[in-house]
Design a protein that fits this description.
Elements: H1 4-44, H2 51-59, H3 71-79, H4 81-112, H5 120-151, H6 157-166, H7 168-198, H8 203-217, H9 222-225, H10 227-240, H11 250-254, H12 263-270, H13 276-283, H14 294-307
Helix pairs in contact: 1-4, 1-10, 3-5, 4-5, 4-7, 5-6, 5-7, 6-7, 7-8, 8-10
């Protein structure tokens, strides 16, 4: 157990780091959402190839056309490479801010609960750095591949696949992105579980943080669902500033674990240790119930005994 002096020093260090990370947390949330809007908005304008358009060469008797129906899509991505790289750069900055927030939260959690999952730290640090770099590197690679396609002379289906998905650089980026995202998500979920156990995060913020980790690993739903990670980072900025509604969680100032009470404990406290209905029932004394006619029969027995 840390001494009182060590606890005071830890709380002071945490307060200083929280003040310095509050603005990056705010900025990271807004940048993450802006990145999703830029990338999603840009790709939504890309030309799409329907089923009939894709089968048109084959229906015309051309198995391998000189120009793939998806050529326009590759050219569009090449011409909008700057917007896509800019959006990925913002996402990389946001992921960097998220990583710093998680490391501070994990450090504070481990001080209050030394048995916290030790693998969470390398997963958050390594996964966060890798995701930030890959999110940017993937777009740079795509810009190079699509540019080479546009200035080249091979517009076949094979060339399109190489430019968009199956090139060596694209394959490498996809694998690294997969493992990096999985590492960051696992580390973030582990951090949320332990931060909840020691009381550093309200229950709903911990669950929202877990969902955020899943969305970073599986960026589904476009810009709409990416509001969730952005909102979580903004709320962490508010928490770090000490402006949390109804006061910040007590575990921060105490320097020790102050777990949030469960719903069963809250109900028990509200009922004074037992549910209200059970308490009311226990305090009420049921009135005796006499059998029908019991009083008059006893009176008749007393009268017969007096005559005898």
């Amino acid at each position: 157990m840390p001494s009182a002096g060590e606890i005071r020093e830890q709380v002071a260090r945490e307060a200083d780091r929280r003040n310095r990370l509050a603005v990056p947390a705010f900025a990271g949330g807004f940048l993450y959402l802006l990145s999703a809007i830029i990338i999603s908005g840009t790709l939504n304008g890309a030309p799409t190839v329907g089923l009939l358009q894709g089968l048109a060469p084959a229906l015309s008797g051309v198995a391998n056309p000189a120009e793939s129906p998806r050529t326009a899509e590759v050219k569009f991505i090449s011409h909008h490479a700057f917007a896509l790289i800019a959006g990925s750069t913002l996402a990389a900055i946001a992921i960097g801010s998220l990583t710093l927030v998680l490391l501070l939260l994990l450090h504070a959690t481990r001080f209050r609960r030394p048995q916290t999952w030790s693998a969470a730290y390398p997963l958050v640090l390594g996964g966060g750095i890798a995701v930030a770099l890959v999110s940017l590197g993937h777009q740079v690679t795509s810009a190079i591949e699509t540019h080479n396609f546009v200035v080249g002379h091979d517009y076949s289906n094979h060339a399109v696949e190489q430019a968009l998905t199956t090139g060596t650089a694209n394959d490498l980026a996809d694998y690294v992105d997969l493992f990096a995202g999985l590492a960051l998500a696992a580390g973030m979920i582990g951090t949320m579980i332990n931060a909840l156990r020691v009381g550093l995060l309200p229950r709903w913020m911990a669950f929202l943080g877990m969902f955020t980790g899943l969305l970073i690993f599986l960026p589904i739903g476009g810009a709409e669902l990416q509001v969730v990670p952005a909102f979580w980072m903004v709320m962490m900025g508010i928490l770090f500033l000490g402006k949390w509604p109804k006061g910040e969680p007590p575990a921060w100032a105490a320097g020790e674990a102050r777990p949030w009470p469960s719903q069963a404990q809250l109900r028990a406290e509200a009922g004074g240790g037992r549910p209200a209905a059970a308490t009311a029932g226990a305090s009420a004394t049921p009135a005796p119930v006499l059998p029908a006619g019991g009083g008059s029969s006893r009176k008749r027995r007393r009268k017969r005994g007096a005559r005898g």
